Each structure stands twice: as structure tokens, then as C-alpha cells.
Amino acid sequence: MKIAAKDTTVNTAADLFSLPGTPNGLEVSTLGFSTEGVGAGKYRFDATASDTVDGGTVLPGLGGVLSFTSPAGTFDGTAGTGRWLLIGTTVDVTQFGAVGDGVTNDWLAFKLWSLSSATMGRLVTSPLTYAIQPPVWDGANTLLGVEGDTTVDLQDATIQLTTTTGTGAYIVFRTAGDNVTIRDGTIIGERTATPVEEVGTAIYLYDASNVRIENMKLSDCKNDNIYISGSDGVGSSNVVVRDCVLDNAGRNNLSAPNVTHLWIKNSGFTNANGTAPEEGIDLEPNANEECKDVTVENCYFSGNIGGGVVARSGAGGRNGGVAATRRITITGCDISNQLTNQAIAVSTVDDFEISNCVGAPGAALNVITIESAYKGKVDNCQAGSMYVAGAKNIDITHCYLDASGGTGDGLIVQSLDGEGCVDIRILHNEITGAGANGMELSFLLHSRINHNTVRNSGEYGMDVSQCLGIQLIGNRVEHSGDASTYTNILLSSVYDSEIAHNVCRFAAYLIENEITGTPTDTVFTVRGLPPNLEDIYTGKLIEVNGEDRNIDSVDDTEITLTVALTAAPIAGDTFLIHDTTKTYRGMRISSNCHNNWVHHNDLRWSGRSLNLWDLAGAQNTVEDNLTT
After folding, report:
1. CB-CB contact of 247 with 221 (8 Å)
2. pLDDT tens digits, one per residue of 53-82
3. What is the CA radius of gyration of the chain?
4. Using the 8-state DSSP alphabet, how is residue 95 labeled?
5. Which of 260, 318, 471, 518 is the most buried (most CB within 10 A)?
6. What is the maximal distance between C-alpha atoms in the chain?
7. Cβ(576)–Cβ(542) under 8 Å?
8. pTM, whole model, 2 decimals?
9. Is the bond leading into 257 cis (omega within 30 degrees of zero)?
10. Strands in 193-303 per DSSP E
């Protein structure tokens, strides 16, 4: 044993128990807990103290022996005379004997360390790698509990659960306290051992409040990397998860079935797989639970088998007409690598907002799904496609849906379980590249589909059926279908609706291009016209600045008109060449459409521009439409 001048420094904590002639109040520093360099601390001797020995903040007194029973962490040594008390309100796990070499099982040290949160305000770890092998699941003894008013600062440490046979189930950190922070570390779970129960979680909140989880990397947990819940009628509240990365959970990366005021920001959720639902974030109450006032902001989702972020009322259902999951905001999220059929989904949710989220093209990818929801909006999002069913009072605005490469529809709005969609407002969106229909709209009541652009659909631009009291106004639908049977806008079994000011043009166009050089009113050059197609373009209809002319001849990139334009174009103006010999329809109003007002639609250059089919006695008003 080494004793420095004035007996103020010893090698290890065990040396404290045999210091000769120790006066009351003596302060002694250790160079380490079990070995020098790991777990150093400063202690004060209290000759009259009889506090329970906890193995780190309270050590045995003179003549004591330090020993604990695993897994519960019960002291079974000798308390001795008096106690050595750690000075300060911060305790390092190495001061409970953790080694941090990535091999030694430090479970018991972590257990004792977490128990000290009842008296210490700050628990820290030295920046080492700690291997922990929890005992086989036996209830509360196989978790690290954190009391209220505590900060757990891992200080860039890594906690690695081992894969030794018998690891069983585990909860690494669990808190039911108030004012808790867990931050700045890595927890790597374990997924290979067979659990006694279906439990395996890095951080578990139960009836906790004012909790912050910050800058944590959590991965490979058997169940959920983070689980936020609580007792019926209580739950956790005021929880912040920010700047975290959650990966490869065996169920969901984060589940929050019972929480109020949850804010998830600047975090990543990737590769959830194993047991359903396998989602990045799962906001789904169980019976008698609620999930409400949740914001998911600036997060990214990738590779989660079941979906990116999914909010549903689940077993919580609706109570008195109020959904168990409500007031959900998902904004600024990146779903471009969430390659599943529901990158973002809300189901039986009241009062939601999905905004400014970015996905990748493809009808089978990055789908935004809304089912049986009430009062919500989707604004300024990009995705492959969108699906809405059985919803009410929903705004879909300023979204860009690129379904290129897929075989499905761009936007589907339909009934679910016999419930149609009511008061849906689809405004100022752009949909392109759908393999089937740009918009497939059915069983819509009292809804508005206005000022949208639908392009390059494989079948119908808009297929509208079984609708009552809708507005279909100011939409631009073009280049739909590749066969004579398809139509830019198809209406069937539509009642008491207004279809007006829509532009259904270019269903049979050949090329859109730009004028270059110094054009005249009859001759101009163009940019990038495909060569050797003079015979195809000659005689076709060309539109320049709203004027229609026929092409007299084409020489390489120079076009000559049969009749001069009213005014010569300028370089940079665009033109369109149409093939009016095609039979594609601009708009078709078919049987069982009644009491509709169809007016002021621009249906030119579509071959069969307006097709009225079997409408005798239907009492529709069709007037003032532009056709050719």
C-alpha cells in the first residue's frame, strides 16, 4: 500500500479500509478503484456514519470488506467502522469497479452505479468500452434504474451487451423519474440469445416526465431501441429525443405507445427488422393508452422493413369519438431511402400534419398513407405516391409525387371499410409518371380537386368515379395513356359536381421544344430537334405562343410554317408539335353522371377532345368548352 504525504492518497479503494489511525473527516484520494488509473476518486471518512454501503458513493469503513451479490447488487460484505463517502455529486461507473476493457463483464458495476442515482445528481462513464452481460431475466433486477433529477452522461463511452449464452432479456436504462437526461454515448444491444421474455431495450421510460435523450447511438436491441410508455391514464410526458441514431432493432427502433408531448428531432431511424411491425418510429397506443402531441422533425428513415414513421391508434382506438393518437406533426424528414410501401403513415389519427418531407420516385416506394384519419394536412412533400382512404377533413397541398418506374397510381383516394372520404382538398399538387392512373379518385364527397398538374400517366390522368358534390377545377392533365382507350380525365358515376377550367391538352403530342436564333413569323430554328424526322413533322399542328399553325417543312433544325404567325416569336419561346390524328380523349363523361356542370374546359389537340357517352336524360350542363 502506498500512502502519500499526510495520508491523502492511496492506490485503490480497498486500501481505505485498512488505513491506520484514521481521524474523522480525513479526505483521501485513490489512484484507482481496483487498479491504478481506472476509477480514481476522493473520499471523506465519517467515523459515525452507518449509511448502507453501495459500492461507490458509500464504501465500508475501517476493517470493512467490499462484496455484492449479483444480479440484484445486494451488499454482502463487511461494513466495518464508519464509512468512506465519495465527495461531490458526480460518480463514474469505474468508481464502482467497472473495468471498461470491452471483455470483462461490468454488469454489477453498472447495476450499483445506477442505484446511486437516488442520491447522486450526475452519473458519468469514462470514455471506454464496457462489456455487460445481464443475468437471465428475473424482473426488475435485470435493468439499470435511473431515479429522477439525474443526468447520465456517458461521455462517448460504448456499452456493449455480450452474446454469451444465457444473456436472456434486458433493459439497459429504465426510468420512471422526473427530470432525467441520458446523453452522449453508444449502447449496442444483443439479438442472438433466446430471451426468457420478449424484452430487449436500450432505454425504457415508464411514467417518466421531463426526460431528454441526446446524442445517443442505440442499436441491435432484441426488441425496441427506445420504448416510451407508462401506466393507464398516466404515461410518460415531456420527452425529447434529439441528435440520436437508432439502428437494427429487432422490432421498432422507437416505440411510444403511451406519451404526451414527445419531440423527436435531428435523429436517424434505420433498418428495423425481425418482429412486426418493424418500423423506424411506431406511435401506437395499447388499450387504455394515448399518444398525443408528438413532433417528429428533421429526421431520416432508411431500410425499416415495416415503415419509416407510423402513427396509428391501434388498440387504443377512439374513445367518445376522439382518437387515442392525435396531434401528430411530421416535418422536414428524409424518407428518400425508406424503400417500403409506407414511408409515412397515419391511421385512425386526429389532427395531424405531414410537411416538407422528401422521398424518392417510384410508385411502390415512399408512399404516404392516410387511413380513417380526421382533420389533417399533407403539404409540400415529395414521395413516390400517396394513398388516402376513409379520411375526413384533409388537405393535400403543394406535393410532388413522382411514380416513375412503377406500375401503380400516383394518388389514390378511396373508401375504407364502407367509409368514403369527405371534405378532402387536393390543391396545387404535381403528379407525374404513374404507371397506371395519375389520380384514382372514388367515393369522394364534398371535396375539391383544384389547380393540380398531372402528367405522363400510363393510363388515365384522372379517373374519377362514385363521387358526389365535388369540384374539379383548374387542373392541367396531359400526356395520359398510350392507347386510344385512355383519357386525360374520365368521369363516371359523378353527381352534383362542377368540372371547369381544366386543361386537357397534348394527350397526343410529339415534342415540346425551344426556339433559338433570330426567328421570323414563318421560319425559326429550334434546339435539339431529333434528326431525320422531317416526314413525321411536316403537316403537323404546331402551337407557338398560343397560336396554332401547320408545319410546311422541316430542314434539320429549321421549321417553316404554312401561314405566318401574328407576331414573330423570340429566342427562348417554347412550342409544341401535336399529332391530331390520334384518337386519345381529352375528357370523357360516361354513363351515370348526373346534374354536373361541365364548362370552360380547354380540351384542344386531344383527337377526340370531349367524349359524352350514354348520357341521355342525365341532365348535365355541358357548355363553353374549347374543343377541336
Report:
1. no
2. 999 999 999 999 999 887 778 889 999 999
3. 35
4. G
5. 260
6. 117
7. yes
8. 0.86
9. no
10. 200-206, 209-219, 226-229, 236-242, 245-247, 254-255, 259-265, 268-270, 279-283, 291-297, 300-302
